[in-house]
Amino acid sequence: MSHNKYTPATDRYSNSVGYQACGKSGLQLPNISLGLWHNFGDVDDADEALKMIQFAFDHGITHFDLANNYGTPFGSAEKNFGKILKEHFSSHRDEMIISSKAGHQMWDGPYGDGGSRKYLMASLNQSLHRLKLDYVDIFYSHRYDENTPLEETMGALSDMVKQGKALYVGISKYPTDKAREAYRILRENGTPCLINQDRYNIFTRDIEQSVLPLAEENGVGMIAFSPLAQGMLSDKYLNGIPENSRAAHSYGFLQKSQLTPERFEQIRKLNEIAAQREQTLAQMALAWCLHQPTVNSVIIGTSSVKQLKDNIDALKNSAFSDDELWRIGELGA
């Protein structure tokens, strides 16, 4: 990894991705947040990872989204990001929103998964150690755990705030009825839920019916992950399944079976609309997520500075006509 002293751009806020309030809180989130799920682990290019973090920050991306099990092996994204923070951003910590999560399997045995107080507290302490930080800005319960009472999971989140180890807390991928209950418990604990993170893109719109209205009703911010539908909403699959793409592998979240002839046709027609807007399909898909007023930020995952720049350029054309929204909505249905 390069050790040249990094000096952030002086115009990073005036020439930035822009910000909006997270729900009814006073916290401003950048329209685009950088996710470190992929491409920041020990198996990835450390120099490119550093360049992406620097480029993001230079363009006003202040929010970096992590989880305990991000990176290969688990924990390596936090460890590598912690090293970058210490070596290049130690005097800029207060300009950053750093989030982490726990809920999915992290280590073997009965205490390395789920929503128990034991797991969440231990996981946060481990994350802070890897990140070399005293606190994270946001800590999420990464999933609803049906084997743990919500009072226990939410109580652990509340205590993290009261202990000064997290400034805010959130939930991710919760069923609507459980999200409603979580919001109530956190509010009664005096640590209201700041943010809900859920999957949202042109092809995945079910949260529009209940999750988004519930968040708005409770003053909770929404942040979207997978805005490009695991790459389907990009030019990657315009001409079939490339050899080294996610869909070409038997493992992972995007399977060949999802790329039906009908899906390919939708992708091509969406690409035509994007071309008329003088955008790539990926740029249009990112801008489309942000047209929803309840969505305060979208999380992107990039493998290169070039891809990161292309994603940021989506914000150059973020307005949609009613006709465009209708046509996109029909193709995404």
The rough form would be described as: globular
The CATH architecture assignment turns out to be Alpha-Beta Barrel
The largest β sheet comes out as: 8 strands, parallel, barrel
The low-pLDDT segments are 247-251
> What is the end-to-end distance?
45 Å
Q: Can you tell me the CATH class?
A: Alpha Beta
Features:
333 residues, alpha/beta, TIM Barrel, eight-stranded parallel β-barrel, two-stranded antiparallel sheet, 10 helices, 10 strands
Give a brief outline of the structure:
By secondary structure, the chain is of the alpha/beta class. The chain is built from ten helices and ten strands.
What do these coordinates show?
The chain has helices spanning 46-58, 76-88, 117-131, 150-162, 176-188, 211-217, 261-276, 281-291, 305-312, 322-332, and strands spanning 19-21, 28-30, 32-35, 63-65, 97-102, 136-141, 166-172, 195-199, 221-225, 295-300. The chain has 333 residues and is α/β, with parallel strands linked by helices. The protein has a single domain (19-229, 292-318), classed as TIM Barrel (Alpha-Beta Barrel), CATH 3.20.20.100. The protein has an eight-stranded parallel beta barrel, surrounded by five helices. A two-stranded antiparallel ribbon has the order 1-2. The longest helix has 16 residues, at 261-276. The chain is globular. The N and C termini lie far apart (45 Å).
